[in-house]
């Protein structure tokens, strides 16, 4: 990762820490959802690395689905509106849904999504979110499974992007300020 790491200011969460925490969350979900009909709903594109790791840490006969829901443009400021760009492939009626997401910031996206999934008849809807930018919360959405609390800084890596890049960094990082002004 030599090329990509040139743009990195700090590593906030290492590969080892991610691996350990994802395993813990996987074990917790395995315990909590035994005997239930679980669907992991990954929010594209940011949830991809977390979804891939988390689903393999859960010892249950679950299914996965994906949605693309966004409240962000290509920059770093929330627009406040939520739109569904790609919907679920399958019906979630009667299913125990766990929404899997890379990061929660204002909470606006999840606050809009959870009621929508409940309205579609899911038996339950909970959130599993890798990174939590607590200080920025506007909407009070309960997150059942949280990976790590992160400071109020722009985060990249492990699914999180800046202008669609850096999602493939295996660690959770912040970018050097020159990256933002490079344009
Ligand atoms: P919220 O609706 O404000 O909670 O925003 C959630 C979405 O914004 C996340 O799923 C991310 O895609 C994006 N986002 C929020 N903060 C960051 C960040 O620091 N880096 C990259 N994406 C972010
Ligand atoms: Mg996202």
Notes on the protein architecture:
With 183 residues, the chain is α/β, with parallel strands linked by helices. The protein has five helices and nine strands; from the N terminus they run αβαβαβββαββββα. The chain has helices at 2-5, 15-32, 48-55, 108-119, 177-182, and strands at 8-13, 38-43, 63-72, 78-86, 96-104, 124-132, 145-149, 155-156, 172-175. The strands form two sheets. The chain has a six-stranded mixed β-sheet, sandwiched between helices. It has a three-stranded antiparallel β-sheet with strand order 1-9-8. Helix 2 (15-32) crosses helix 3. It is globular and about 50 Å long. Mean pLDDT is 93; it is low at 73-80. The protein binds inosinic acid and magnesium ion.
Question: Can you lay out the helices and strands and say which pair or pack?
Answer:
Blueprint: H1 2-5, E1 8-13, H2 15-32, E2 38-43, H3 48-55, E3 63-72, E4 78-86, E5 96-104, H4 108-119, E6 124-132, E7 145-149, E8 155-156, E9 172-175, H5 177-182
The structure holds inosinic acid and magnesium ion.
Descriptors:
alpha/beta; 183 residues; three-stranded antiparallel sheet; binds inosinic acid
Q: In summary, what is this structure?
A:
The chain is of the alpha/beta class and about 180 residues long. It contains five helices and nine strands.
* Estimated helix fraction: 25-40%
Q: Give the CA-based shape.
A: globular
The gyration radius over C-alpha positions equals: 16 Å
Largest sheet: 6 strands, mixed
Order of helices and strands, N to C?
HEHEHEEEHEEEEH
Distance between the ends: 22 Å
Task: Give the neighbour order of strands across the main sheet.
Answer: 4-3-2-5-6-7
Subunit organisation of the chains: single chain
Bound molecules: inosinic acid, magnesium ion
Taking pLDDT < 50 over at least 5 consecutive residues as the criterion, the unreliable ranges are 73-80
Number of DSSP helical runs: 5
Q: Roughly what is the average pLDDT, rounded to an integer?
A: 93
How many DSSP-defined strands? 9
The secondary structure category is alpha/beta
Beta fraction: 25-35%
């Amino acid at each position: 990762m030599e090329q990509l790491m040139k743009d990195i200011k700090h590593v906030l969460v290492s590969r080892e820490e991610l691996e350990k925490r994802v395993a813990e969350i996987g074990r917790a979900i395995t315990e909590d959802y035994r005997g239930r009909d679980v669907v992991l709903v990954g929010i594209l594109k940011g949830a991809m690395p977390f979804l891939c790791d988390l689903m393999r840490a859960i010892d249950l006969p679950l299914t996965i689905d994906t949605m693309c829901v966004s409240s962000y443009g290509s920059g770093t400021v929330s627009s406040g509106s939520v739109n569904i760009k790609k919907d679920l492939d399958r019906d979630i009626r009667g299913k125990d849904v766990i929404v899997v997401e890379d990061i929660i910031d204002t909470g606006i996206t999840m606050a809009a999504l959870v009621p929508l999934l409940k309205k579609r008849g899911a038996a339950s809807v909970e959130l599993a979110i890798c990174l939590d930018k607590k200080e920025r919360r506007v909407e009070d959405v309960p997150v059942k499974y949280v990976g790590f609390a992160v400071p109020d800084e722009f985060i990249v890596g492990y699914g999180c992007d800046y202008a669609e890049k850096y999602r493939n960094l295996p660690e959770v990082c912040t970018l050097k300020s020159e990256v933002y002004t490079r344009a």
